[in-house]
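REVIEWER CHECKLIST
Item 1: Sequence provided? yes
Item 2: Single chain? yes
Item 3: Sequence as submitted:
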Amino acid sequence: MQHPRIIQGGMGAGVSNWRLARSVAEQGGLGVVSSVALDVIMVRRLQQGDPGGYMRRALKAFPDQTVASGIIEKYYNEEGTEEFHDFKQPPVFTVEPVREIQELTVAANFAEVFLAKEGHSGKVGINYLEKIQMPNPASVYGAMLAGVDYILVGAGIPLEYPQMIENYTQSRAGRLKLNVEGAEKGHEYIMELNPAEILRDPPRELKRPYFFPIVSSFILAMTMAKKVKGVDGLILENHTAGGHNAPPRGALQLDAAGSPVFGSKDQMDYKKIAELGLPFWLAGGYSMPGSLENAREEGAEGIQVGSVFAFCRESGFQGDLKTQFLQSIEAGEQEVFTDPKASPTGFPFKVAHMEGTLSEREVYESRKRVCNLGYLRHIFRKEDGSLGYRCPAEPVDQFTRKGGAAEHTEGRKCLCNALLSNIGLAKRYARGYTEQPLVTAGEHTESIALMIQEKGYDYTAAEVLAMLRSGR
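Item 4: Structure as written out by the authors:
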């Protein structure tokens, strides 16, 4: 199988949207949509009037029209505009989710992949975070219903995904083991989706997509290659990439700016990884002319590229945020900070310093803490044996009342709401407050500066691909 040489990163919530993925796939790259918060993204698009009718058209192709019509009836607002932010909230996932959120998640992942694949024969993938566990069985099934070609999973150790994917090809239930803090030894908590409980007449067979875990160490690469059946390739992502990074190996040390210090233990030996016998792609800092050739000389099949795509015309970032970020790059004033505290997951998270965003202390401190989306909540076992949910970014008194340590809340930011704000889907509350954005990007911004110099602020995904293929 000749896989695409260039993989477009699956970034943020709705940044790697169907438009971007479709544009990349049409040009022969692997276009990747982000799976994060697709259920909320779809219902908010519908409430903003569904410009262009894309969500409704995708839902009309969904294999169970009772489910699809119910979503449209509940959430579509014919008079909505992009200025509408008083959104109705769908249910939040729990270990025993209500049927509505399962149906909504399946349909939303189907719709995003359906639109990305529409009208061409290129390859489309979807990116999942292993840290966001509860929605993922429903999310994967929805993407497979739409014929997704590749499934990529990072931010964790995705050992169980190949079996779940295999089960779905035969319309069997897919399941993931959940991480539960304080779980009794030997007791497992499972998240399961049975297609027959979601669709009236589920397809008997589905195409099996290729599965690529995203890894950051040789040990994890070896684990996925040797101990997990069904791994088709590896994406090797180093710590300069945008979004979440794997923590440094060994004791955490911070530099003078407060960023984690990565050392020799965090470097990957590509020759050893090549000996594992799987094709691999290099990510994080491979976004310049000649990067593809350099990666090929290292033994890689190709490269995964994120940030330069994140700020192109087709990405989901709000236009004013794109312009502000690109202006800071052009002026040489942008410094991306690896924040060890921002993410509720505990993973370091790359933050671009931008005026009016949560990267500014006064903007961060002016926000009243609330956890109303719940994607990054931690599941924990209570003393009575039942399960609870807590997030270090929720109100401090709530977090500590649930047994969390107050120091774990310091500097934590609600990425769920901030990332939706990045794409124009911020929620406005009755008290008048509207959620503010938080922009992430990789450390290496030279390729973005190059695109600005050659194409201006409104460069396209096709122009990024041409640059990456142009050679040294």
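Item 5: Key structural point noted by reviewer: DSSP finds 18 helices and 15 strands in the chain.
Item 6: Recommendation: ____
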